[in-house]
Design a protein that fits this description.
This protein is an alpha+beta fold. It folds into three domains: about 160 residues, Ferritin, core subunit, four-helix bundle (Ferritin), CATH 1.20.1260; about 110 residues, SH3 type barrels; about 90 residues, no CATH class. Helices cover about 50% and strands about 10% of the residues. It contains 13 helices and seven strands.
């Protein structure tokens, strides 16, 4: 077919979509049959019915023009369906197959959404507004099923498809590397130390960076906190630090006691670690600094590792606790004001408690009720 105008292109797109919807009506029932999760089967069944309605809308548009429905082979969708069939024929667990079905179904939806978007725009430019509204209705329904499939995947399908090996797999050996301060100083062309401070006190100085691979980006700052008998170094995510150019210091919104709970870093030991030891160290870092910080994921995070956390709570003023990063809040106690006739003048009172030695406190004895479960 020769395309000499926008009308020709519009009809070509409609014919492509007509073939695509016909193919969808044949393909979706196979996906329904292969799916196991009830909500996934229901969503695909519903979209099968919607696809029949989409086909009727396309036939109506052709009728508006006094034309019979045209079918132009939709090679793009045919290729996606072929990939879907191959995926369904692969040996897989039921959970992994459900995750695969969502993936191929969303590829199909995204293809159709792009095509319907083009057809709707052509209809508007041709002043066929009724047809544009019909196409927009279909486009909205395609968007809703795509969103529904994402909800199903994120609710549990993708997590169910993970195996124990997936959950326990360690990062590639030796991926992290230490960048000493003298290398950083050369890059900055400045040999002066970089202090790290909160609003009121020094926490230490920058002693280096921990980066990914030979060319990877830096992820952690190594803080030299000093010490009388033994120097202590620990890691802070670079995302917590900001450079105060005027004062020539790195700022961080952490009190000293809270910052001291961040992971220790022994540069000499790190440099001599075996591949296995370095992988284990990085795995512990990844458990402490999860990548996903969405509120809904917070509750599913693993507890802080024993090598990091002791039984004593850290106390900070409430206005500072609110500004702490998520991982720090896990080992900072809550603030509760004391009220009542026997209470002293209203003031901020915070109580630190050793989980192993302290007896449970009453509300009159302590401003903060026991929360031992928070440390487990």
């Amino acid at each position: 077919m020769t395309i000499a105008s926008l009308k020709d292109l519009y009809f070509d797109e409609l014919g492509d979509l007509y073939d695509a919807e016909t193919l969808m009506i044949r393909t979706l029932p196979r996906l329904v049959e292969a799916a196991r999760a009830p909500e996934l089967r229901e969503a695909l069944k519903k979209h099968t019915d919607e696809s029949r309605l989409h086909l009727e809308r396309l036939e109506l548009i052709f009728t508006h023009w006094g034309e019979r429905p045209r079918t132009i082979a939709c090679a793009g969708l045919a290729g996606i369906v072929q990939e879907a069939d191959a995926r369904l024929n692969q040996e897989a667990t039921a959970d992994a197959r459900d995750a695969a079905i969502i993936g191929v179904a969303q590829r199909i939806e995204h293809y159709e959404m792009a095509a319907y978007g083009c057809a709707r725009t052509y209809a508007r430019r041709l002043n066929r507004l009724d047809e544009a509204r019909l196409l927009q209705e279909t486009l909205d329904e395609e968007g809703r099923i795509d969103h529904r499939l994402s909800e199903i995947a994120e609710a549990h399908i993708n997590d169910d498809a993970r195996s124990e090996a997936d959950l326990e797999a360690e990062p590639p050996a030796g991926r992290l590397r230490y960048v000493p301060m003298d290398v950083i100083a050369q890059g900055r062309k400045d040999q002066s130390p970089l202090p790290i401070r909160n609003d009121v006190e020094d926490l230490g100085t920058l002693d280096g960076l921990v980066a990914e691979g030979e060319l990877g980006a830096a992820r952690y700052a190594v803080v030299d906190a000093g010490g009388l008998l033994k120097r202590r170094r620990y890691l802070l995510p670079l995302s917590l630090l900001r450079f105060d150019e005027r004062a020539r210091v790195l700022r961080v919104s952490l009190d000293r006691d809270v910052a001291n709970r961040y992971p220790d870093f022994d540069r000499d030991q790190f440099q001599t670690m075996s591949d296995e030891g370095r992988s284990g160290y990085e795995a512990r870092l990844l458990r402490f600094f999860p990548v996903d910080t969405h509120d809904e994921q917070q509750a599913r995070r693993p507890a802080l590792p024993d090598w990091l956390l002791t039984g004593t709570w850290i106390t900070v003023p409430p206005h500072r606790a609110e500004r702490l990063p998520a991982e720090a809040r896990r080992f900072v106690n809550e603030f509760v004001p004391i009220h009542g006739e026997d209470a002293p003048p209203i003031r901020d009172r915070m109580v630190a408690r050793d989980e192993e030695s302290a007896a449970p406190a009453t509300m009159r004895e302590s401003a903060t009720p026991p929360h031992g479960a928070k440390l487990r």
